[in-house]
Fold this sequence. Notes:
Layout: E1 4-5, H1 15-26, H2 43-59, E2 67-72, H3 75-87, E3 91-96, H4 99-108, E4 113-119, E5 141-144, E6 146-147, E7 152-153, E8 164-167, E9 184-188, E10 199-204, H5 221-226, H6 236-251, H7 255-275, E11 279-281, E12 292-297, H8 303-312, E13 315-316, E14 327-330, H9 337-352
Parallel strand pairs: 1-13, 3-4, 3-5, 5-8, 8-9
Antiparallel strand pairs: 2-10, 6-7, 9-10, 11-12, 12-14
Amino acid sequence: MKIHNFSAGPSILPKDVIDKASGAVKELDNSGLSLIEISHRSKAFISIMEEACELALKHTNLNNKGYKALFLQGGASQQFLMCAYNLLDNKAGYVNTGTWSTKAIKEAKLFGDVIEIASSKENNFNYIPKGYDIPSDLDYLHLTTNNTIFGTQYKEIPKTTVPLVADMSSDIFSRKFDYSKFDLFYAGAQKNMGPAGTTLVIIKEALLGKVSRRIPSILDYTVQIKGGSMFNTPPVFAVYTSLLTLRWIEEKGGIEVIGEKNSLKANRLYNEVDRNPMFKGFASEESRSQMNVTFNLVDAELTDTFDAMCNDNGISGLKGHRSVGGYRASIYNALSIESVEKLINCMQLLEQKK
Length: 354
């Protein structure tokens, strides 16, 4: 039976990518060596790293615009710390839209004054705040563009004169987007790009070198740029698989085409959530995520029945986060419309059994 993987992360990857990655573990490009046993200093892996960085900049349309791409370790959680270490000298602003924003704020407070510019905490983060003032004396403003747990996403990026930083872990490469609005953004690979183990960071070089503190070498963006993401041994498998996914995006027509398919999937599923009296959406309509559709049963006593239906139809990873409950359908780039339709069929079947 085909499994329909709605997991929030680590999450679904394209089958072609998994096949090629697994083949490379056995032998990389007829080299007689496995991907995971070659030297990271070899020409073969340096070429992999360079192409991955080049494609990341190409897909974000930031080639030759003063940006550098890095593949680092530690996940987005380490970037909460690393951003502040490198950029926060006096005062930074954060918009708090969920769990990951809250954690980013906690880390930043170790390095300077942190202002919570806006928050949706009072409504359990079910919307993206709007209409707030942004002080002009901030070192940077930090956003989380998509909130995996709560199913909210920025539709418009706030205008500001201060450097803009973003955690894009769960929606990078998922829609046509003006990435040049940001001076730095980062994303854990395990949503739309690859397996857990590496984090993409894209940064405008002019942003660096302005803090007064000394920065440990491994946490210094300038050092990492100079070392080509290889100040220490990189996660070779995660980087290679991310490269394969970036190639796959290009083969599918690029981010614009991918985004159109994602919109189709999201619209189909949200339409069913709104139409079907057995379900109710969690996120406010104007803030709904195109990547993570959160919803609940109107009658919680039907949970076991619906869960059994989903299990019988090969639907996996649908359980919502404990802070929201209910269900969360993560419909990342590699998830097919067929999987979305299978879930919709289960929702309609529950309605018919009412």
